[in-house]
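Morning F.,

Quick status update on the modeling queue. The single chain you submitted on Monday has been processed. Sequence for confirmation:
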Amino acid sequence: MGQCVTKCKNPSSTLGSKNGNRESSKSQSKRNASNKEEPSFSCGKASGDILVNGTKKMDTPIEPTQPPAPSGDTKKKDPGMGAEESSLQRIEELFRRYKDEREDAILEEGMEHFCNDLCVDPTEFKVLVLAWKFQAATMCKFTRKEFFDGCKAIHADSNEGICARFPTLLSEAKQDDRFKDLYRFTFQFGLDSEEGQRSLHRDIAIALWKLVFTQNKPLILDQWLNFLIENPSGIKGISRDTWNMFLNFTQVIGPDLSNYSEDEAWPSLFDTFVEWETERRKKEVETKCITSPDADQLCMEEQT
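Structure tokens below.
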């Protein structure tokens, strides 16, 4: 996607970065330079999975009539518990590799480094899906809780593991109910919570619509986005209701718009869009009729 998608102030930023000039970024760069280089990996490698259901066995009770067991056998640690603790430690190490020096979170520079190590571009659909699974509250940032809960949710504790999960995550995002959840998440993800935004800026909404429909593009999407780009109604932002209803619109209204009715409870912006698009198509037909050698036949075919 050519246009960057972010709420960040720098217009050249992306889903996973802002490229801001911050002291924390400089200090983090120095810190990253002093760390040992991580071994490279192929994104196709298998992952070390998280085991989250380990329990600890109770000590074996000793019968009074039985001779006491040797002290080394009285306690047996469940190997599942050890695996879970080891996995959490690996997540901690992964988080620390990218976290900001001053804030206990992965910020802009760390996100860029993280995406680079995952072999993904910060503007890719994969990054949006990962943010969805991590339930990230804002762009360009993973808090400690979001990162830990997200890694556990996708059962991965390494970059290799996260990469290995991408095919499954992309397949999940194709399911109707899961895509609806991802779609609604995307609106909230695009808001600037620090500024108390309630609607998406028009340009941000356009970029996020292109991104979220990467795998299942509606037939009417291009016309809708062209309408927003030309902006005949002069709108500045997209409300949550308009965002949510557009998904319903793509599922109910045919690409020819013939079954659209203004009497139904659609947002008024949809009325304006259908009127604008219908008029545009009429002009397109008229132009073809004038310029085509077989004008009469072409016009009759278009009108039927």
